[in-house]
Design a protein that fits this description.
Layout: H1 8-24, H2 44-50, E1 53-59, E2 66-73, E3 81-82, E4 86-88, H3 91-95, E5 99-103, E6 110-115, H4 121-129, H5 154-164, H6 173-185, H7 200-207, H8 216-226, H9 229-245, H10 251-262, H11 267-275, H12 282-298, H13 304-317, H14 326-331, H15 338-346, H16 353-377
Parallel strand pairs: 4-6
Antiparallel strand pairs: 1-2, 1-5, 2-3, 5-6
Helix pairs in contact: 1-16, 5-6, 7-8, 8-10, 9-10, 10-12, 11-12, 11-13, 12-13, 15-16
Length: about 375
């Protein structure tokens, strides 16, 4: 193994096998089924979280200064003049009235994110305050450090999702972008707060709007928590169409939402359509594994035991790819796949060095776990 060179396909396999647990195993990590679009750039919500000062401010006529109208974060009171430089994403972002401004902790300048009506200040303050719920520690504003801000707890995320749901596709573009960004980067397990949301009928309209196509993954998952049997049937029609054409657009999110709507019984469909079918492409298989991993992490609608059963079936159906699920199984402290993996290694059934590396790592961790268990029972 040490003498092998990693192929580009091998590096992609290793990325799937090793990166997914880092995304999903930590409690406050974003849901990988819907975060793809949001991760392309830092979300506005993340910028607000990291900023030490956030205000709504109006430009002072005839001067390159701004007067604070509302304070969202920080100590600056309304009426204070901002004389420091203000930059924006475009000219409109700088000239809006009022503007949502944030101050970068390590630079003496302000950034204008765009126009926000002063009436939205209270909502923005509530959004920022979700960082202070039980289980979170507020980030000190001084001294300023470069370390990442503390992640929200599950309680904080659930409170934040409840706050943004009524503001999805708000008439104010920046408010709508903030709300969607927070939905897209929320941990999957926290999205069930949407079950009590009264705006569920709107989700399907957003999914039918081609102008919102970039936001589809988050809204598809939202449909999984808010939809009914008719939504499930429509979603399954889309899944069947994707399967026939080998389509992968939003496939992981669609499978994830379908599992949420239909429950464990639909895992059989995933196994038959994507694990047993040898005509499936690598992106299709990755999407199916991704959706099942997220549900296994949540361990709620689809019990983790059922996902583990599916992964054991995947190991048997596709021995060369068996390492793809090894990190997930290890992350759940499930070691009963050791015999299967040892057999595959002995038979030289795993040709991809990345997949083999994931299996070897799993077996090493399994041995350590068994040794630790043995030492505690002596």
């Amino acid at each position: 193994m040490l003498g092998r060179r990693f192929s580009p396909r091998g590096w992609l396999s290793l990325s799937l096998a090793l990166a997914l647990p880092l995304i999903t195993a930590t409690g406050a990590a974003a849901c990988p089924l819907c975060y793809e679009a949001a991760r392309q750039m830092e979300t506005t919500g993340q910028q607000l979280d990291m900023a030490d000062q956030v205000v709504l401010a109006a430009p002072v006529a005839g001067r390159s200064e701004f007067r604070i109208v509302e304070t969202v974060k920080g100590q600056d009171a309304p009426g204070v003049i901002i004389a420091e430089p203000v930059v924006g994403r475009d000219a409109a972002a700088v000239t809006c009235d009022p503007c949502l401004l944030l101050r970068e902790p390590l630079r003496s300048r302000w950034i204008s994110l765009g126009a926000v009506r002063a009436e939205q200040a209270d909502w923005l303050r509530q959004l920022a305050a979700t960082r202070l719920v039980e289980g979170d520690r507020p980030r000190p504003t001084w001294p300023v450090t470069v370390q990442a801000p503390v992640e929200l707890s599950y309680a904080g995320w659930r409170q934040r999702i409840a706050l943004v749901l009524p503001y999805l596709e708000n008439p104010e573009p920046l408010i709508a972008r903030i709300a969607w960004g927070e939905l897209a980067r929320a941990p999957y397990a926290c999205l069930d707060v949407a079950k009590s949301w009264t705006g569920a009928a709107e989700v399907q309209r957003w999914l039918d709007d081609p102008r919102l196509a970039s936001r589809d993954p988050a809204y598809i998952l939202l449909l999984g928590f808010t939809g009914g049997s008719a939504d499930a049937e429509r979603l399954e029609e889309r899944l069947e169409s994707a399967w026939k054409t080998h389509g992968t657009a939003n496939l992981a999110a669609m499978i994830g939402a379908d599992l949420e709507l239909r429950g464990p019984s639909r895992v059989d469909w995933v196994e038959a359509k994507y694990f047993a079918d040898r005509s499936r492409t690598m992106p299709e298989i990755e999407a199916a594994l991704n959706a099942l991993t997220v549900h296994g992490d949540a361990n709620r609608t689809v019990p983790r035991d059922r996902v583990i059963q599916a992964f054991r079936a995947f190991i048997k159906e596709r021995p060369p790819m068996a390492g793809f699920v090894a990190p997930q199984l290890a992350g759940w402290d499930y070691w009963d796949a050791s015999a299967d993996y040892e057999g595959l290694l002995n038979a030289n059934a795993i040709k991809d060095p990345a997949s083999e590396f994931a299996v070897v790592t799993y077996l090493k961790r399994a041995a350590l776990a068994k040794a630790a268990l043995a030492s505690t029972t002596k």
